Amino acid sequence: QVRLVESGGGSVQVGGSLTLSCTASEYAYGDYQLGWFRQAPGKEREGVAALDSLGKIRYADFVKGRFTISEDNAKKILYLQMNSLESEDTGMYYCARGKVYGGISYLRLNSADFDYWGQGTQVTVSS
Fold it and tell me: Hey, how many other C-beta atoms are within 10 angstroms of the C-beta on 119?
């Protein structure tokens, strides 16, 4: 069973920065996509950013220019660098992994495309 473990969450003031990490227990077989999702209080889960083994990266409009997703494949770690944090960024952040079939990935930022999920790490942004 693949396990994903997030870390790096915490409390930060508006305008501050945090870097989240997600460590996987096993390498993926074949092509894959890795993503970050978040669940804000009273809101639906939403995709934040994703990348795949084919070199594609996608960001949600509300974080583009502020967040950076990256991967250290050798260490099986996914990162989310978050800068210029806003109150609206508060929520539980989850990392996820899914397979890419047929050598093509659409990076839809859709949770249905991901098979494995971490338990989440809390991010709280306050003024």
Answer: 11
